[in-house]
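To whoever is covering the structure queue this week,

Two jobs came back overnight. Logging them here so there's a record in the thread.

Job A:
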Amino acid sequence: MKIIDGGVTAAKGFKAAAAAAEMAEFMFLGLRMTRGISKAEFERQFGSEIDAIYGDVLRKYKSMGLLLEENGRIFLSREGIHVSNSVMADFLP
């Protein structure tokens, strides 16, 4: 096994990958619920605004009418529910 930069670089990469996986799981689980996800809860849990992480994906699906946003929550539209697997795949790291 090769140690990279005393293991620091590898550890940072692992932490970043783990954080990305946790964010994706948050999105998957939340979007499967009719009430969707809370933007405030995302920020509390991950320390970043959801738009800073997923802004491009959110804008894409909002413009297509597949995601809606109301009262600080993001959720699948009726049309979005029918293609939810495709929408949620874009949140994968």
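Job B:
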Amino acid sequence: MFHSTECTQERLFFSLKWAAEGKLDLPIIGKQKVIDVANSFGIKTKRRQFNNIAKDVADVLLDDLSNTDPNREYKTLEALAPPERKKIWKDLGLILLVHIMKYLKPSTNQV
């Protein structure tokens, strides 16, 4: 069962992806935010169409949201969580399944 916030985030990420693919007739606002998040994720942005960048961002977000492997790195956490917090989590050996939602929300406020 999904928490309501997870469902909302998932719908938002699919909406971003479908808008970028032209399957959903909605404008993508916050274009600079999408580009900034893409750069944080290591997604190439130079000489690429914006919609392709937005689709790649949505794919990363959806992949992180569905990740259940505690041994696989979350790109969202690596890109957006403060380094000092990541160090504490690593030192404590925490599995980060719950924490991802905290960092997904700020990254998508204007998407």
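Note for Job B: The chain has a mean pLDDT of 82.

Please reply-all if you pick these up so we don't duplicate work.
Q.
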